[in-house]
Amino acid sequence: MHSAVQKLARAALFTAALGAIPAGSSAAADGVTIRDLIVTTPQPDARSDAAIKAARAFYEFWNSGDTAFLKQAISDRFTDRTLPAGRPQGPEGPSFASRGFRAAVPDLGVTVEKMIVTGGYVTVHMVFTGHFSGTFGNTPGGGQPIRFIATDLLKVEDGRITDNWHIEDNLTLLQQMGLAKITP
After folding, report:
1. For a tag site, which of 14, 143, 162, 177 has the least CB within 10 Å?
2. Domain chopping of the chain, boundaries
3. What is the pLDDT of residues 140-154, one digit of tens each?
4. 23: number of CA atoms within 13 Å, CB side?
5. How many Cβ atoms sit within 10 Å of the Cβ of residue 131?
């Protein structure tokens, strides 16, 4: 029992380290899919365009793992406002989370289901997909399909993301990995 609790705790910490888990195919040639984009300004403006560009680069990073997109997206002052335990604060945090998550789900992808842009803020609802074919802590995957949701609130200043508040459906992820079970 103690071992199972420790395993679940490690799993929860790891998934928390995934953080901005915002996620379709591992590195789609066409880039990240945005199914629905809503901009609340009556006419396109430079601020909204810059926010969309930064958000698109951020989710291209999550979709591909390519840190060049992350560097385009986030500010040197980047702050994770819902920082999971074990994840470094600042610009290194998302890269750290991506490396850890891709060790477990190498074909991780993201689809942005909805992106709402208002002023300097972007709200994004996304779906992460892939297969647990890597290793999560000491647990090897068996190729199980992974599909879970996440939501981000991004603050964008001067065309770069400065702040991120995020929430992920880690319980669904852990269940799909076989690391959490709900008993009635």
Report:
1. 143
2. 2-176
3. 999 999 999 999 999
4. 28
5. 18
Distance CA 83, CA 124 (A): 18
d(CA 32, CA 54): 13
| Torsion sign, CA atoms 59, 60, 63, 64 | negative
Rounded-to-integer distance, Cα 83 and Cα 92, Å: 12
pLDDT at 45: 86
Name which of 68, 93, 66 is nearest 163 in CA terms. Answer: 93
Q: Beta strands of the chain (E only): which ranges?
A: 33-34, 37-39, 74-80, 109-118, 121-132, 135-136, 139-140, 144-157, 160-168
Let me know: does 119 contact 133? Beta carbons within 8 Å. Answer: no
> Tokens at residue 112, please?
């942005």
pLDDT of residue 13: 37
Residue pointed to by tokens 């852990």: 174
Q: Under CATH, which architecture does the 2-176 domain have?
A: Roll (3.10)
What digits encode the pLDDT tens for the residues 148-175? 999 999 999 999 999 999 999 999 999 9
Q: At residue 161, what is the residue type?
A: I
- Name the band, by pLDDT with cuts 50, 70 and 90, for residue 43: low
Token pair in block for residue 138: 């000491």
